[in-house]
């Protein structure tokens, strides 16, 4: 099922999405022992986490039973400010009571696999093996990328692997680790969040039946639900 929800502006989108996450996570926790969420980087994804941090209802979440993954990561040294993990830690993860073992970050480029992005991708695929993501949060780029799957790139043609190393990305940094679209489609719910007029064309093209090769965001669909969370500007077309 596809749903599109439009908010007046980016701050409202971020706070409403944080509230939606609180409800979704606590509802899931009422019926299953643990919940798996994949985070996204970028402005909107980080703003949602900041709102989650200050949302008083979020104290109802039992973080000790939430596994945190990332849909994609910028392959940079650990603690680099541009890593999606670093930003998520600053926005939320360093402020909540979540056991270390529940945070499943992608290895950095100075980590156990050094700067071998293929090894880091393979290790992350292993980490995700057997996990069903309850909610995959993802952004949308101006050219229609989602996760770190860019239009007409090798990653968008990947049909076997769940996680790939992505090189020569048009958006910096050039090397990234990303879930593939087939892996994204294993998630129960995919929430695609984006704001701003610069995203409007990508959004309308994706929702008008574009091919995922041309517009990867069109191919990120959850098994139960695909939710497009937009501000008025991104929905403007
Ligand atoms: O580089 C990335 O950007 C996208 C979208 O970011 P935004 O700032 O335009 O919201 C994000 O979804 C992705 O995780 C990240 O690596």
UniProtKB/TrEMBL annotation:
Pfam family for this entry, one: Glucosamine_iso
MF annotations from Gene Ontology: 6-phosphogluconolactonase activity
Residue intervals of the Glucosamine/galactosamine-6-phosphate isomerase domain: 11-228
Keyword Kinase: no
One GO term (biological process): pentose-phosphate shunt
Alphabetically ordered keywords of this record: Hydrolase
Swiss-Prot/TrEMBL catalytic activity: 6-phospho-D-glucono-1,5-lactone + H2O = 6-phospho-D-gluconate + H(+)
This enzyme's EC code(s): 3.1.1.31
Tagged with keyword Transmembrane: no
Top class in the EC scheme: hydrolase
Pathway: Carbohydrate degradation; pentose phosphate pathway; D-ribulose 5-phosphate from D-glucose 6-phosphate (oxidative stage): step 2/3
Family: Belongs to the glucosamine/galactosamine-6-phosphate isomerase family. 6-phosphogluconolactonase subfamily.
Purpose: Hydrolysis of 6-phosphogluconolactone to 6-phosphogluconate.
NCBIfam families in alphabetical order: pgl
Protein name in UniProt: 6-phosphogluconolactonase
Organism: Actinokineospora terrae
């Amino acid at each position: 099922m596809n749903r599109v929800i439009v908010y007046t502006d980016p701050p409202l989108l971020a706070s409403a999405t944080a509230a939606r996450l609180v409800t979704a996570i606590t509802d899931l926790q009422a019926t299953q022992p643990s919940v798996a969420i994949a985070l996204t980087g970028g402005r909107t994804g980080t703003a949602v986490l900041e709102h989650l941090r200050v949302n008083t209802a979020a104290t109802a979440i039992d973080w000790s039973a939430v596994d945190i993954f990332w849909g994609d990561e910028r392959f940079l040294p650990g603690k680099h400010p541009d890593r999606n993990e670093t930003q998520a830690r600053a926005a939320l993860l360093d402020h909540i009571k979540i056991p270390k073992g529940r945070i499943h970050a992608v290895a950095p480029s100075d980590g156990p696999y050094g700067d071998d992005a293929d090894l880091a991708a393979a290790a992350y695929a292993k980490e995700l093996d057997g996990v069903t993501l309850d909610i995959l949060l993802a952004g949308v780029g101006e050219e229609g990328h989602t996760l770190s799957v860019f239009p007409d790139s090798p990653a968008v043609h990947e049909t076997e692997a769940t996680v790939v190393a992505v090189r020569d990305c048009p958006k910096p940094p050039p090397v990234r680790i990303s879930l593939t679209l087939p892996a994204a489609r294993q998630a129960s719910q995919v929430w695609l969040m984006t704001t701003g007029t610069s995203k409007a064309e990508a959004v309308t093209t994706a929702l008008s039946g574009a091919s995922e090769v041309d517009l990867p965001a069109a191919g990120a669909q959850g098994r139960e639900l695909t939710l497009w969370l937009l501000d008025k500007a991104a929905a403007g077309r």
